[in-house]
Amino acid sequence: MKKKYFFLTLPLVAAAFFLSLNAYAEYEQEIQSQVDKMMGRAKSNFSEVYFHDMGIIARKADLAELNEMTAKIVRTYLFEKMSQYIQQKIKDINETYLSDPAQATSQFLELVKFQKYFQPTEAFLQTAEGRAIEAELEQARKHALEDLKRGDSKESLMTALEAVRKTGFFMTNSGNEYSSMRELTQELECSFGWKSKINYHYSHKFETDYDAGTIDEEAHLNLESSGKELSEAKWSGEWIYHMKGRDGTVEAVSHATLTHRKGQDIAELVITSAKVSSIGRMNMPMPVSGDMRTFEVKGEPFHPWVALTGMITVELVGCRENKVKP
Questions:
Q1: Helix locations, the chain, DSSP H
Q2: 109 pLDDT tier (thresholds 50, 70, 90)
Q3: pLDDT tens-digit readout, 229-251
Q4: SS3 of 179, please?
Q5: What pLDDT digit, counting tens, does each position of 51-99 carry?
Q6: Spatial contact of 159 and 151, defined as CB atoms under 8 Å apart
Q7: For residue 275, how many other CB atoms are within 10 A of its CB?
Q8: How far apart are CA 230 and CA 221, in angstroms?
Q9: At what angle do helices 48-63 and 2-42 cross, to 10 degrees?
Q10: What whole-number distance in Å separates Cα of residue 74 and Cα of residue 81?
């Protein structure tokens, strides 16, 4: 009787197994249907709501142990779409700076803010796909940080911004992730802020009817406006001329103020009348009674730079001071 009972249960076990497979496949189709509906609603206009909801769908796939689907959602529908989203948002923000710098700044701060959308299960993290995605993000953060420390270019800023936002799609809470994210977000915040000090140096020769020699023009300006006010800035400090002729030298020290409002295509520089001291005899090759200059602002509103006298390039945002001499 026991053997008869055993053989009778085999069809029941097999039926239950196939029913389970069928339910598994139906659930996979249901999740794919949710993904398709999300993509249909978003089309090419992605938003924070899209990423929030797609993160929930990724969680459903993960809990159902649909590992391939989970990886596809993370890579295709979160990572790739975030790259597109950042590019579009930066374009929109740059356009908004032209009409409403305050609103553009608010949108920009929202964009650079870290947000958490999805945390994979420990089971998924142990899969080949889970380990691969985790390693890719580690490398992305490492390279982004290295690029930022080499210089605050538009490319390095965008790379860092993508690394931060994509980490929110795959939070592991590991020690490496915590330390790299802390350093990267601090560096990124600094890189998008106004430069705290601007140094400038330009040297050129002069020749007049009465004298000949060299002029060294240098400036050391400190940020006076609030570092939290990202739509406009003012720097002030000394603007100094060192003139050397055949028979003497002159030093002229002025006070200078440089201002720029994001969205405008110029930066304004006001130099006051200088206090002059001299040694020997020299006919000054230029007046030092004060000056007002305007410079064309290059780059994009979120990352502006100017070319001062002598085409010396000075970035207006970033963590590092520019070198005094070109």
A1: 2-42, 48-63, 67-72, 81-99, 101-112, 122-125, 128-150, 154-167, 175-192
A2: confident
A3: 888 999 999 999 999 999 999 99
A4: helix
A5: 999 999 999 999 999 999 999 999 999 999 999 999 999 889 888 988 8
A6: no
A7: 11
A8: 18
A9: 170
A10: 10
